[in-house]
Amino acid sequence: MIYRADQIQAAVASICPEIRRRIECTVPAVSERALWWDLSSCILSSQVPYPLAAAVADVLDRSELLLTQKAHTQREKYILEILSEPVNVQGRLRKYRFPSAKASQLAMTHKQIHKTRDSLSELLEEFTTAEDARKWLVDNAPGLGPKQASMFLRNVGLSYDLAILDRHVLEYMELLGLNSAHSRSVQSISGYVDTEVVLRAHARDSDCPVGILDWAIWIVMRVIKQPKEKLI
């Protein structure tokens, strides 16, 4: 089946109100433990299927390696041991793809956060804007790019005014003429923010927060990309 750009835009707009209602009925978990679970899963999910990243985050959570404040010279080593072991993902044993790199990133992120404040929750409370929080995370948490940092801040309920610019959202923007295939890379924070500004203006025209609009885009674009369906 062939979909026109205006049909896709209408489908996105039609589900935004339902997403907004669901969010309003959801109370995000904001305990220190929940914050670290969300942060670690976002770091672990880069180039890795989310169910696998979440399963590894569960094992890390049970170890409590990221919950202690005191310095731990062996923290990276113990995280690496956990990431090197197979985990159960939907009934199958799976191995994590980047154990060494992610163990180093998680240990360094923990060190940077506790060098700045006594806890992750205390750190997040000091930022006056979500943009400031995201920039700090991108600058100080290895393995967190602007997309993963935006996802973390949304997951913990800090802001729905940050966009998660994944490939589905970027394809939607290109389809509607909001973003060309030759636009600046969203890997850098400056390029990401430039693209986010464009999507935020589109969201404003649709009377929808950008963090809800891109969620709706993600849902619609995944559905229409099913086999035997084609975009124009």
UniProtKB/TrEMBL annotation:
Q: Which domain of life is it from?
A: Bacteria
**Keywords, in A-Z order:** DNA damage, DNA repair, Glycosidase, Hydrolase, Lyase
Q: Please report the organism this UniProt entry assigns to the protein.
A: Pelagivirga sediminicola
The answer to whether UniProt assigns keyword Transmembrane helix to this entry is: no
Instruction: Name it.
Output: DNA lyase
GO MF term list:
DNA-(apurinic or apyrimidinic site) endonuclease activity; hydrolase activity, hydrolyzing N-glycosyl compounds; lyase activity
**An example Gene Ontology biological process:** DNA repair
Q: Is Ribosomal protein among this UniProt entry's keywords?
A: no
Database matches in Gene3D superfamilies: Hypothetical protein, domain 2
Q: What does the organism's lineage look like at the top?
A: Bacteria, Pseudomonadati, Pseudomonadota, Alphaproteobacteria, Rhodobacterales
